[in-house]
Amino acid sequence: MFIAVEKTPPYAVRCLKLDGDCVTYGRKLYQADLQTYRNCLENDEWPGYEEQYADIALPQWEMRRIFELI
Fold first, then answer.
1. Measured between alpha carbons, how far is 49 from 35 in angstroms, rounded to an integer?
2. How far apart are CA 36 and CA 43, in angstroms?
3. Which one of 24, 34, 52, 65 is separated from 16 by 20 to 30 angstroms, measured CA to CA?
4. Measured distance CA(13)–CA(1) in Å, rounded
5. What is the pLDDT of residues 3-21, one digit of tens each?
6. Distance CA 25, CA 32 (A)
7. Domain extent listing, the chain
8. Could you give the CA distance from residue 69 to residue 46 in angstroms, rounded to a whole number?
9. What is the pLDDT of residue 7?
10. pLDDT of residue 51
11. Which pTM value belongs to this model?
């Protein structure tokens, strides 16, 4: 259940309930995450960032903006 309340007067309130499909989907997601956590604990292997560096670049729109300035 979610309770939404307006921040300004008249502070209307609305109660919202997720449908069954959303609840089922959410349950499957958190159970998969718990399994991942369990595997990490058992194997002492924790996923994270790669140890190698990665190349990145500015987005094209920002590159165009910079070239317009110079």
1. 20
2. 11
3. 34
4. 13
5. 999 999 999 999 999 999 9
6. 11
7. 19-46
8. 45
9. 97
10. 80
11. 0.51
Average pLDDT over residues 33-43: 97
Mean pLDDT of 22-44: 96
The letter for the amino acid at 10 is P
Q: Please give the C-alpha separations between residue 15 and each of 5, 9, 38, 52, 54, in angstroms, as whole numbers.
A: 9, 17, 35, 48, 46
* pLDDT for res 58: 95
* Dist CA 33 CA 26 (whole Å): 11
Which tokens in the block code for residue 21? 């499909």
Q: Phi then psi for 37, rounded to 5 degrees? A: -60, -45
Q: Flag whether pLDDT at 42 surpasses 80.
A: yes
